[in-house]
Amino acid sequence: MADGYDLVVIGAGPGGYVAAIRAAQLGLKVACVEKRPTLGGTCLNIGCIPSKALLDSSELFHLAKDKFSKHGIKVKDVDIDVPAMLARKDDVVKGLTQGVAGLFKKNKIEAVYGEGSITSPTSVKVKKNDGGEVTLTTKHILLATGSAPIALPFLPFDGNVVVSSTEALSFPSVPKHLIVVGGGVIGLELGSVWKRLGAKVTVIEFLPRIAAFADVEIGNALHKSLVKQGFEFQLETKVTGATVKNGKATLTAETKDGKTLTYEADKVLIAVGRKAYAENLGLDAAGVKYDARSGKVATDAHFCTSVPSISAIGDLIDGPMLAHKAEEEGVAFAELLAGKSGHVNYETIPNVVYTWPELATVGITEEQAKERGIDYRVGKFPFLANGRAKAMDETEGSVKIIADAKTDRVLGVHIFGPRASDLIAEAVTTMEFAGSAEDIARICHAHPTLSEAVKEAALAVDKRAIHF
Question: What does the domain layout of the chain look like in residue ranges?
Fold first, then answer.
C-alpha cells in the first residue's frame, strides 16, 4: 500500500467511486476506503440496481400473465421461480460491482476494504475487513458514506418480518400480505415488485398523497394507476404501534380523524426515509460540523466542510438523496480539487419512480410555480394520442411542461407514462441550456416514438399541439 495520497475517499458508492475515478483521471494519487467486500455502495449492492433488476423481472411476469394474450401470444401455466429471479438479480449486481473494481485497477486507485475513520485532517485509520489496521496519510479527505434506512422506534427492524429495503430485495417467497409504511419512491417500487408477483400490498402514508415530491397532477395519476393495479392505500394515517409474534406482524394505525385501524401482515417494509451515515467517522474529533439528528454534514458551495482539508458529497450533504446527484457532485469535487471548474446545477436534477408506468420529473412543479408567483403556461399531451404508445399498448399517462409565460423558458417537466425515466433526459438537457418550450417543439423527433409526446406537450404550451 502506497504511502501518502492526494485524496482518500471514504465510501465507494456512486459519489465516492466516481469522485475517485475522476480525480485519478486528473492525475491525483487516490485511495478509496469501503467497508463492504464489494464496491458500488448501497446503489449497486442493495439499492438502485437490484431493485431495478427485480422490477424488470416482475414486469415481464406481469406482461406474460396479463398482457401477452392481447398481442396474440399464448402462454400457458405462467409461474414464477423466486430463487431464480433473485439469482439473476444477484448476477446483475455482481457484474456491475466487479466492473467498478475493474475501473479502479484501470485508473490505479487503491481500494482499501474496511471501516474508515478520520484521525486528523490529513489521515484516515482503516480497520481492515481481513484484520489489522492501516493509517492512510493524504492531502485531502472526501466523505461519501451515503445513508441508511430510518427505523421506527416502536417497530425496529428484525430482518425477517419487519424489514428495510435491503431485506425486501431478497424475500425467499412472495408474501401473502406486505404492508409498506411510507408512500415514497422505495416503498412504491418494492411494493410494485411483490404486488406483481402476487402479494397483497397495503401502503400506509402519513401525508395526504404519495410521491410527495412530484407535481400533484402527475402524482395523482400514479396513485390512480397503482390503485387500478391492486394497491391499497391508507393516506393521512400514522402507524402507532405493532407487535410481532409467530412470524406475523399486527400493526395499529390512526387516521387523520382519529379512527383506529388494525392490520395483520407477514412482512412489513419500513420505507419512511433514510438518514445520512455519519456514525464512526470521527467527525467530532476532527472538528467537522454536522447535524447529529439527520447526519448531514455542513459544507460550502465547493463541498468543503468546516475543516478545509475534508469535504463531503452525496447523501451526507443537503439535497435529494439520489445516486446521480452524488455522481455529479463527485465529478465536480474532483475537478475543483484539481484546480479546474466544477459545478452542479441543482435545478436540473431529475427524479424517477420506477413503477410501471414510470413517473419522472425535473424542475419546479405547478404548485411551486404558483407559490413563487411565477406567470407560467402549461402544455400537456396524453400518451393515448401517441402512435408508438398505441402500438405498444402502453397509453396510460401524459407529459406536462411548465414554461415561463414571458420568456417561454422551460421551468419544469413532469412525465407519467411508459419509459418516463428515459424521456426525461430531453427535458433535463433543454433546461440545462436554459431552453424554451419552443426549442423542444421545433426539434424533429423520430416517428413513431414516445418522445413525440414531449414535443407535442411543448407545442401545447402555445396551444398548438397537432395530434390532440
Answer: 5-149+275-346, 162-272, 357-461
Task: Please state the separation of Cα 315 from the chain's center in Å.
Answer: 11
Q: Residue 11: pLDDT above 70?
A: yes
Q: What is the pLDDT of residue 2?
A: 56
Measured CA distances, 148 to 151, 321, 396, 462 (Å): 9, 11, 34, 45
DSSP E strands, 98-221: 110-120, 123-128, 133-143, 147-149, 162-163, 177-181, 200-204
pTM of the model: 0.96
Say if CB 377 and CB 401 are below 8 A apart.
Answer: no
> Do 162-272 and 5-149+275-346 have the same topology in CATH?
yes
Burial 87-118 (b: 16+ CB within 10 A, else e): eebeebbeebbeebbebbeeeebbbbbbbbbb
The CATH code for residues 5-149+275-346 is: 3.50.50.60
Q: What is the DSSP string of 356-371?
A: SSEEEEEE--HHHHHH
Mean pLDDT of 439-464: 98
162-272: CATH number: 3.50.50.60
Q: Using the predicted structure, report yes or no on whether residue 3 has a pLDDT greater than 90.
A: no
> How would residue 323 be classed by pLDDT, with cut points 50, 70 and 90?
very high
User: pLDDT digit string (tens) for 436-445?
Assistant: 999 999 999 9
For residues 144 and 15, what is the distance between their CA atoms, to the nearest angstrom? 6
Degrees to nearest 5, angle at CA 143 with 28 and 330: 55
Instruction: Give the confidence band of 161 by pLDDT, cuts at 50, 70, 90.
Output: very high
Is 447 annotated in the active site? yes
Name residue 363's beta-bridge partners.
412
Residue 201, C-beta contacts closer than 8 angstroms, at least 6 positions apart: 177, 178, 179, 180, 191, 194, 195, 230, 231, 232
Long-range contacts formed by 293-300: CB under 8 A, 24+ apart: 295/147, 297/143
Q: What distance in Å separates the CA atoms of residue 176 and residue 200, rounded to the nearest whole number?
A: 6
CA 104 to chain CA mean position, Å? 24
CATH 3.30.565.10 fits 357-461, yes or no: no
Least confident range of 49-53, 150-154, 409-413: 150-154
Element (H, E) at 383: none
Active-site annotation holder among 71, 302, 447, 467? 447
Give the helix/strand (H/E) hosting 244.
strand 237-245
CB 221 within 8 A of CB 397: yes
Output the average pLDDT for the chain. Answer: 97
